[in-house]
Amino acid sequence: MRMQTEHHTATSCESNASFLDLVDVLQYPIHRPDDTRLRQAIVCARKGLRLDGCARIGGFIRSALQGVLAKETDNLASNARFSTKPYTPYGTPADEAFAAGHPCCRVHRSTSGNVTRDLIPGDTHIHRLFRNEHFKAFIAACLETEVVYEFADPMRGLTINTMPDGSSLGWHFDANEFVVSLMTRRAEAGGTFEYCPGIRGPGSENYEAVQAVLNGNRRGVRCLDLRVGDLQIFQGRYSLHRVTPVRGVRHTVLFGYTREPGVIGNRLSTWHVYGQVLPAHVDANTRRHDDGLKD
């Protein structure tokens, strides 16, 4: 399969030298698409995505640079937006058209925060990684697609999920089909990523199964204990997921990509999850997914 990416004019801050310093290219030589080691990593990632919509790529960031990224996200964490609004797993307010207990009526308050893309400087390591063509080509290959595009949402395209001591991230679906995450700071305890792979799919919300999980049914719930430097590719639009309460601090960078260009998150869900919207969200409904699912 050809490893192809969306074409951009590279800026001076996106030099291969700085990028290759960051990634453990001995394990993952993503600048060499025909390298056997890279091909093996892609095969493993594809297997994980096919089996349960999740691929863990351990030690993607060089150990010597993990502290640099931790410091970068630590410094940006003070800019995090915290939503005070209750919302459903779909990022929307309760819909009273549904019966009590239905997932569309079940609201919660996630206590984690998010540093959104508009608050992340373009010269940071994480922003450079997000835009890097080698990185995007690798992600596309793992997803068995020819090209991935940057999630065009000016806030949700690139975020840092920051979880202060005692915070949690409730059960939810993502706005985009898949997300790529990178842990930069691991909690002292807790902070386990839990997910229900493929619990819904295009045109099928499967409310009954979602409601069962919200009611505490653990059947089908899987757990993933991520470590600093691990990369994760996750089909979060189709898999209900959450992060359990943390002790200490947990930081995770979320890189948003899409299969089609120009996709922007729904204005209503953006408002409830992030507590703010930008002008680009006003006409977002004209550039949404056509999979028939709630955002």
What does the model show?
The protein is built from seven helices and 13 strands. The protein is of the alpha+beta class and 295 residues long. It has helices at residues 16-22, 36-52, 63-76, 125-131, 133-142, 207-214, 267-274, and strands at residues 54-57, 113-115, 149-150, 158-163, 169-172, 178-185, 189-190, 193-196, 222-224, 231-234, 240-243, 246-247, 250-258. It is globular and about 55 Å long. The two termini are 31 Å apart. Strands 1, 2, 3, 4, 6, 10 and 13 form a seven-stranded antiparallel β-sheet that branches.
The count of helical stretches stands at 7
Q: How far do the termini sit from each other?
A: 31 Å
Beta strands, count = 13
Mean pLDDT: 90
Q: CATH-wise, what's the superfamily of the domain at 54-120 and 147-276?
A: q2cbj1_9rhob like domain
SSE class: alpha+beta
- CATH C-level name of the domain at 54-120 and 147-276: Mainly Beta
CATH architecture call of the domain at 54-120 and 147-276? Sandwich
The CATH topology label of the domain at 54-120 and 147-276 is: Jelly Rolls
